């Protein structure tokens, strides 16, 4: 191409870029001819760490090798509707970033070019990964949490109906745990919970699931047990492991565990009734002297909605509006619990819980924006996930399709307290720091 023609094309591309994007810092944009970049704004070059510009660079060369074929295909299909392309790109000094790319076709001076919009989504993707971990694991012990355990138990119950293979549920509660917290402090209590969790996890099969349901309560799922007696062998092993002393500094801490065992389908065939049967058996084991296990009985498998929980000031985070809204949410949940326990109409209360939760989350997100909270991305993703789960439960309750009143209330009560004592307490601390500056 003659020099004058090249200069003319560059001038035309620059003019086009100026028309496509007036503000250099809003969106990272580039123009490409096939896969080679012909023009780009400053934001695009900075995003990929190319401070000398990206003109005449092939877009796939900016990416890790495993993403190049995907982007080449997306560039070829730029004229059709397609979802954003998620890739990982090189940055300065060997670092990488996650980038979301969008492609649109553009006719310019008789040529077919591609407009590329790029966005750095590294923080968002890391927050999503962390949220997925938090959604299904107990943050203290790393074990599965109630949500993951319930889902796996539901799958095991369905498999039992298809294959007639039995599954076992073991509910465990540590004996004499409270005195450890009272005497040695909560750090010692947390240490004991982590040690007990590691011992039990090491003793189980890879196909088994162990979860911490909250406090000092654990649950174990043994899928596809050949004989009911196999569950009692596991229960005996877990009680023996729990009573072994734990060294904490210069102290020797001792706990034991009581275990309730329920078999699907012998004692129950639904998640709700299996929990109820194992819970009743756990109560029997404690009543008979603790540090032992007990079998469930079919007659004990009656699922009950948890009692309303009086609001405890220990859950206050020190931000008046947040504490008032949390207390109101607690009152709404107690109203739902009363309605479910007494067979009253609950639809309007559930709708109010969904609406007020949405209002409360929006208020917290305004606070995050005002103080430029570093943890805002993860906190907002938590809000989004919790609202999705809440709306799903609301839909199930309205359709009465597999709706479990007792498990729903357990989930709601656990969700509220976990979120307040975790993410909301961190937000409140950031608000206090911002107020002091």
Instruction: Work out the strand percent.
Output: 15-25%
The overall pLDDT, averaged over residues, is 85
CATH topology of the largest domain: Alpha-Beta Plaits
Radius of gyration: 28 Å
Element order, helices and strands? HEEHHEEEHHEHHEEHEEEHEHHHH
How is this structure best described in words?
The chain is α+β, with helices and mostly antiparallel strands and 437 residues long. It has three domains: 118 residues, PAS domain (Beta-Lactamase, 2-Layer Sandwich), CATH 3.30.450; 182 residues, 2-Layer Sandwich (Alpha-Beta Plaits); 134 residues, Hemerythrin-like (Four Helix Bundle (Hemerythrin (Met), subunit A), Up-down Bundle). It has 13 helices and twelve strands. The strands form three sheets. A five-stranded antiparallel beta sheet has the order 2-1-5-4-3, sandwiched between helices. Strands 7-8-6-11-12 form a five-stranded mixed beta sheet, sandwiched between helices. A hairpin with a 2-residue loop joins β9 and β10. α10 runs antiparallel to α13. The longest helix is centred in the C-terminal third of the chain and has 32 residues. It is elongated and about 85 Å long. It starts with a helix and ends with a helix. The N terminus is likely disordered.
Summarize the structure.
The protein has 437 residues and is of the alpha+beta class. It is 52% helix and 19% strand.
């Amino acid at each position: 191409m003659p020099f004058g023609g090249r200069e003319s094309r560059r001038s035309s591309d620059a003019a086009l870029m100026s028309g496509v994007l007036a503000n250099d810092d809003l969106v990272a944009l580039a123009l490409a001819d096939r896969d080679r970049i012909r023009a780009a704004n400053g934001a695009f070059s900075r995003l990929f760490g190319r401070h000398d510009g990206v003109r005449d660079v092939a877009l796939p060369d900016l990416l890790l090798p495993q993403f190049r074929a995907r982007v080449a295909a997306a560039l070829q299909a730029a004229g059709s509707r397609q979802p954003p392309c998620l890739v990982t790109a090189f940055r300065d000094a060997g670092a990488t970033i996650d980038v979301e790319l969008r492609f649109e076709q553009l006719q310019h001076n008789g040529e077919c070019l591609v407009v590329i919009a790029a966005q750095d989504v590294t923080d968002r993707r890391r927050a999503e990964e962390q949220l997925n971990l938090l959604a299904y694991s107990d943050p203290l012990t790393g074990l599965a949490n109630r949500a993951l355990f319930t889902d796996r138990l539901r799958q095991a119950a369905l498999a039992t109906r298809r294959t007639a293979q039995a599954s076992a549920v073991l509910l465990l509660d540590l004996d004499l745990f409270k005195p450890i917290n009272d005497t040695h402090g909560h750090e010692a209590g947390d240490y004991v919970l982590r040690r007990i969790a590691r011992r039990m996890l090491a003793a189980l099969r890879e196909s088994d699931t162990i979860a911490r349901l909250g406090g000092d309560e654990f649950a174990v799922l043994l899928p596809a047990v050949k004989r009911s007696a196999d569950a009692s062998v596991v229960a005996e092993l877990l009680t023996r492991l729990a009573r072994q002393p734990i060294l904490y500094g210069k102290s020797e801490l001792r706990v034991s565990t009581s275990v309730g065992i329920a078999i699907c389908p012998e004692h129950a065939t639904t998640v709700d009734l299996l929990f109820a049967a194992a819970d009743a058996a756990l109560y029997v084991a404690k009543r008979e002297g603790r540090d032992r296990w007990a079998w469930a009985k079919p007659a004990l498998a009656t699922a009950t909605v948890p009692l309303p929980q009086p609001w405890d000031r220990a859950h206050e985070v020190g931000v008046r509006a947040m504490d008032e809204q949390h207390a109101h949410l607690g009152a709404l949940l107690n109203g739902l619990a009363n309605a479910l326990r007494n067979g009253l109409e609950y639809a309007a209360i559930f709708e109010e819980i969904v609406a007020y939760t949405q209002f409360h989350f929006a208020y917290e997100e305004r606070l995050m924006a005002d103080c430029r909270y570093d943890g805002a991305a993860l906190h907002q993703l938590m809000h989004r996930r919790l609202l999705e789960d809440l709306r799903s439960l609301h839909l199930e309750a309205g359709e009465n399709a597999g709706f479990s009143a007792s498990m729903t209330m357990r989930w709601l009560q656990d969700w509220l307290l976990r979120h307040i004592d975790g993410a909301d307490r961190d937000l409140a601390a950031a608000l206090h720091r911002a107020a002091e500056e």
